Amino acid sequence: MYAVIQTGGKQYRVQPGDTVEVELLDGEQDQEITLPDVLLVADGENIQVGKPKVAGAKVTAQVVDPDRKADKVIAFKFRRRKRYHRKRGIRAHHTVLKIKEILLK
Predict the structure, then answer these.
(1) Residue 29 belongs to some domain of the structure
(2) Chain-centroid distance, C-alpha 86
(3) How many domains does the chain have?
């Protein structure tokens, strides 16, 4: 059984036991959270596609790491012969989740 969930403006294909790194969510270490934005649920031959969400479906997950910093992304602007350059770097904050179960009503 697997599902496609949406969180932080991105979509993730998850199944029980998976570990997923998503955009920063509110939650403490080892806290269980519910992800209600389920777009698709597949169980063998049965596939339910939402319009836009599957009614009554939700995914429960446990917070493994509440605030992990991602790799640094560097933005560099440069104009040749104009003596112009700007360098900026950012490390986004992510939350690591371990998927517990996919629930359907």
Answers:
(1) yes
(2) 31
(3) 1
Is there a contact between 19 and 101 (Cβ–Cβ < 8 Å)?
A: no
- Single-letter residue type at 34: T
25 is a domain residue? yes
Q: Are 94 and 19 in contact (CB under 8 A)?
A: no
* Residue 48, domain extent: 2-67+94-103
Q: What is the pLDDT of residue 101?
A: 97
Omega cis (within 30) before 52: yes
Indicate whether 7 pLDDT > 90.
yes
**What's the rounded Cα separation, in Å, for the pair 31 and 64?**
8
Side-by-side strand order, sheet with 46-49: 10-14, 2-7, 38-43, 46-49
What global pTM score does this model have? 0.84
**For 34-69, how does the pLDDT look when each residue is reduced to its tens digit (9 = 90+)?**
999 999 999 989 999 999 999 999 999 999 999 999
**Please, what's the b/e burial string for 62-88 (b: 16 or more CB within 10 A of its CB; e: otherwise)?**
bbeebeeeeeeeeeeeeeeeeeeeeee
